[in-house]
Amino acid sequence: MRAVIQRVKQAEVIVGEQKAQIGKGLVVLVSVEEADTQEDIVWLAQKIVNMRIFDENGVMNLSLSDVNAELMIVSNFTLHASTKKGNRPTYLLAAKREISEPMYDKFVQYFISEYSIDVKTGCFGADMLVNIANDGPVTIIIDSKLRF
Which of 37, 78, 83, 121 is the catalytic position? Predict the structure, then answer.
C-alpha cells in the first residue's frame, strides 16, 4: 500500500455535493497494489496513528491520537503511477477494483475498530474534488513495501 499523508487545518471531499469534511487532522490518500495483505493494512495504519507530525513547542512531536485530530482517508490509485516511459503514466501496479476496494474498506475499518477513530472518507472510484488546507506544509509518503 502507498499513502500520502498531509497534515491539514481543514479538508473536504466533494462528489457532486459535499461528502465529508474535517478540521485539524490528517488527510491520507491511499493506493492498493495486488500484493497487499492485511499485514500491510496493520503496518500502515500503525505508522499513521503513531507518526509524530503535529507541533509541540515548534517541534513535530505529537501524533494523531495525542492531539485528538481528525482523519480523512481518500482512495487514489494514481499513487501507483509509473512514469518511467513516455509522457503518459501507467498504473500497472495499482490493484484492480475487485481487490483494491475491499482492501480500502478494510483499511478504513481498521482505524475505526482498533483506534476508535471517526474516519471520514471519499467515495471509492468516484471523480472527487478534494480541498485541502495543508498545514506546514507537512506531506509524507509511505510505502508498505519499503518498510524493511
Answer: 78
At 100-115, the pLDDT tens digits run: 999 999 999 999 999 9
CA atoms of 10 and 69, how far apart (whole Å): 11
Tell me how crowded residue 103 is: count the other CB atoms within 10 A of its CB: 22
Taking the alpha carbons of 3, 57, 24, 46 in that order, is the dihedral positive or negative?
A: positive
Residues 71-84: b if buried by 16+ CB within 10 A, e if exposed = bbbbbbbebbeeee
- Beta pairing class for 54-56 and 25-31: unpaired
Res. 143 pLDDT band, cuts 50 70 90: very high
- Concerning whether 90 is annotated as a catalytic residue, the answer is no
Question: Which domains, ranges and CATH numbers included, belong to the chain?
Answer: 2-146 (3.50.80.10)
The model's pLDDT over 110-136, given as tens digits with 9 standing for 90+, comes to: 999 999 999 999 999 999 999 999 999
> What pLDDT score was predicted for residue 148?
73
